[in-house]
Design a protein that fits this description.
The structure is a homodimer of 299-residue chains.
Chain A (H helix, E strand, L loop, with lengths): L2 E4 L3 E7 L2 E8 L1 H9 L5 E7 L5 H9 L7 E3 L6 E6 L6 E7 L19 E4 L4 H10 L5 E4 L3 H6 L1 H10 L2 E5 H8 L4 H10 L4 E5 L5 E5 L3 E4 L13 H16 L4 H18 L13 H15 L2
Parallel strand pairs in A: 1-4, 1-8, 2-6, 4-5, 8-9, 9-10, 10-11
Antiparallel strand pairs in A: 2-3, 6-7, 11-12, 12-13
């Protein structure tokens, strides 16, 4: 089954202890697509400006990503500039230029309106709501957000949350939105706000999943070297949603498997800048690392 | 098979957001014993001063702990005073009084010299070495330490490390002793220093185990409320060593099971001050929570 992802396509300038990249291809929808493409057809819904390099557009197509709803508008592409220091756990945002993202109105084709797997990557929750209004009713909806929207568009975000099947958040976002410092309490609180499942990503410390049917904790894949964590959460979500879309069934076993695939997809992402590593990964490599990881976590 | 534990018996004054306790029974050997006693006979080797309450001594005996090598000397019992704020992840040490611990020379009986499971809980590594000189050669040796010794008695600690089968450290201790910020690299480096196994405890983030035969990552037991984390690491070690001693065999399956038992034992410890919770726990309750935890981590 295909996936429809709404999010950002960005030009990222990232500095880490390993080096620097300027205006490289990034954004939540791009990172999501790079892992989900390994499982199924991915339809990317986003906007770029007139400065967006055609080489990047061709690159996305070459990776099999459907870009018919990736709109190019007059103006500048969304740009993010950030730096990671020390233990690479948190990015320091140096600059954000919204550009054409500021007035973005997503628009999808009739075919895309039938897609039953939707991921709302991190964009303005009002855009997420507008988008959901066009999308397939009854689709399986994954939702991501960020602290900026939690703080500035809480009401809209709570509305999207009610429509989501699974809410994915990092630990800080989960704490901020739930107003609970303890992660188990945070997960329960978020669950009470509407979604059927809550997934809290703890970066190098793994994840915690909460639903009515089961709770699940998973460590991260142990890494010796992290080059650039930008997009790890979106790559995780792509692996998770991709696996589920391909499984065509949602139950405890498949959900746990999907969480493992997401974790492993994210481990590839952090090995190099942007999508430099994930864009070259194939399903065989992903499966092999899932096998290695399964050994590490099997009791 | 019995266990011999060398460590401290202390009078702890602890303040957490949940309240305060003054001069309660604590210390590394006490916390270790409270969980290991559920599996086997535990012989505690430590020193207390003349101010050590007889009620505490009777309490230890009542819990089945063999205290024949718990020496009472003229002087004051080791005292630790600490506070936890906010997320309870790190203790702020307010005061430490070594008392009789400063001149402690452990001395064990002929029977105890035959015990084949030894845990060197956190004390001066020179005391640990002196103790090992008396203990059963070829015994299975677990080793714990702390930042103070890593900084001030590195050479002695490295000597004990060479004699240990398993070294247990929290993440910060592992980083400090190995001089590697990355935990996987730290585990490998510590492994190269002598022990057959390295176990890095990450508190609420679980643990990472490294050996030649296998690596293993385990999340922590999800807790809604943490009252007092003091002694969680020692309680973990007690559950781990206790399970192994009772299993009478060390292989991948038993080691993983032992790590799970240690994790669950620690989860009881943090639910109340000192040993207030663990001293009341029985094996049935421990097994039940192991069952619950196994569900949460099974893939």
């Amino acid at each position: 089954m295909s996936i429809l992802v709404l999010g950002t396509v960005a030009l990222d300038t990232v500095k880490t202890p390993s080096g620097i990249r300027e205006k490289m291809l990034g954004g939540s929808a791009v990172h999501f697509s790079m892992s989900s493409r390994l499982f199924t057809e991915v339809n990317l819904v986003a906007v770029v400006g007139s400065d967006f390099p055609l080489t990047y557009m061709r690159f996305l197509k070459r990776k099999g990503i459907v870009v018919t709803s990736l709109i190019r508008e007059e103006g500048l592409t969304f740009k993010w500039e950030g730096e990671y220091r020390g233990d690479l756990n948190a990015a320091l945002t140096l600059n954000t230029e919204l550009g054409v993202l500021a007035t973005f109105k997503p628009c999808i084709s009739e075919g895309q309106k039938k897609i039953k797997n939707i991921f709302l990557a991190n964009v303005d929750p009002d855009i997420q709501l507008y988008f959901l209004g066009q999308a397939c009713p009854g689709a399986f909806v994954g939702l991501d957000s960020m602290n900026f929207w939690i703080k500035n568009k809480r009401t809209s975000l709570l509305k999207v949350l009610k429509k989501a099947d699974i809410f994915v958040a990092n630990d800080q976002e989960a704490r901020d939105l739930s107003e609970e410092a303890n992660l188990l309490k945070a997960a329960k609180k978020l669950y009470s706000l509407g979604p059927r499942m809550v997934l809290i990503k703890k970066g190098e410390h793994g994840l915690f999943f909460y639903s009515k049917d089961f709770v699940f904790a998973l460590p991260a894949y142990p890494m010796e070297k992290v080059t650039d964590p930008t997009g790890a959460g979106d790559t995780f979500a792509g692996g998770f949603m991709g696996y589920l879309a391909q499984a065509r069934k949602i139950n405890t076993t498949y959900l746990k498997k999907a969480l493992i695939y997401g974790t492993v997809a994210a481990s590839f992402n952090v090995e190099d800048f942007g999508v430099e590593r994930t864009s070259g990964v194939n399903l065989r490599q992903l499966n092999q690392r899932v096998k290695d990881f399964t050994k590490i976590i099997s009791i």
